[in-house]
Amino acid sequence: MVIKLVIGCCNYLFGEGVKKLLNGDRDVNIVGIFDEAVDFKEIVKLNPGMILANFNIFREFPEDFAIDNQIKILLIGDRRLCSTAYRQIPELIKRGVVGILPPGTDSGLLKKALKAVSQGELWIERKTLKDMLTSKNLSEKMADLTRKKEEVMSLICQGFRNKEIAQKLNISEQTVKSHCNRIYKKIGVSDRLQLALYAYKMWPEYIPNVLKQK
C-alpha cells in the first residue's frame, strides 16, 4: 500500500530536501509540504495517511487533529525532544504520534520507519525505550522515599554540602549523612555526584532552573 505523506517543517527548504530523499521510493507518495503558516484544514483536504513533522510544527497541531482525521504522525526528533521523549510518549501517542526518529536518522532509516509505522508498528529507538523503563523504575523507588529524604536529595542536587543541608532542614549533620546513604542505596548510586547526574537526567525537577538553562 502506498503511503500518502505530507511533510511539515518549520523550514520549508528542509521539507523540500526530505521530499527529494523520498522521491525515488515507489511506496511513498508525497502529496504536500507545509510550514508553520499552514491552515490545518488545508492539510485535511490532501487526505494524507501520515504526516512527517518536526516537534515545533507538531506542537501547533490542534490536540485531537490527528486522531479526528485518522492521520498517523511520525516526528523528526532533535536531541532536545529525544532526551525527554520517554516522559512524553504516552501523551504523544494519544495525539496520534506513531514514531520518533532519532537525530542521526539517514534516508535509509527514514524509509524503514515510514514502512514500519504504516503497517501499524511504533517506531521508537531502543535508548528511548530503555530510558522509559529506567524512569518507571526510578519513580517506583522515589515513591518509597520520605519527604525529608526528598528534601535532602533536592538540596544535594543543588550543590549544598551536608552541613548546609543540616542547617536548612534544622537537623543534625549525622542525620543528613544517614539520609544520604539510604538515598544512595535506594537509587543505586555511590556518591552525591552520581546522584545529581542521575537526577538531572531522570528527575529534572530536583535541579534548579538556573542549572538546567546552562
Number of domains: 2
**What low-confidence regions span 5 or more consecutive residues with pLDDT below 50?**
208-214
Q: What share of the residues does DSSP label as strand, in percent? A: 5-15%
* Order of adjacent strands in the largest pleated sheet: 2-1-3-4-5-6
Q: What is the architecture of the largest domain at the second tier of CATH? A: 3-Layer(aba) Sandwich
Q: What is the share of helical residues?
A: 55-70%
Q: How widely separated are the two ends?
A: 47 Å
Quote the average pLDDT: 80
Put simply, the count of helices is 12
SSE layout:
Blueprint: E1 3-8, H1 12-22, E2 28-34, H2 40-45, E3 50-54, H3 55-58, H4 65-68, E4 72-76, H5 79-94, E5 97-101, H6 107-118, E6 123-124, H7 126-143, H8 147-157, H9 162-169, H10 173-187, H11 192-202, H12 209-212
Parallel strand pairs: 1-2, 1-3, 3-4, 4-5, 5-6
Task: Explain this structure.
This protein is α/β, with parallel strands linked by helices and 214 residues long. It folds into 2 domains: 3-125, Rossmann fold, CATH 3.40.50; 144-212, Orthogonal Bundle (Arc Repressor Mutant, subunit A), CATH 1.10.10. The chain has helices at residues 12-22, 40-45, 55-58, 65-68, 79-94, 107-118, 126-143, 147-157, 162-169, 173-187, 192-202, 209-212; strands at residues 3-8, 28-34, 50-54, 72-76, 97-101, 123-124. α5 (79-94) packs across α7 (126-143), α8 crosses α10 (173-187) and α9 packs across α10.
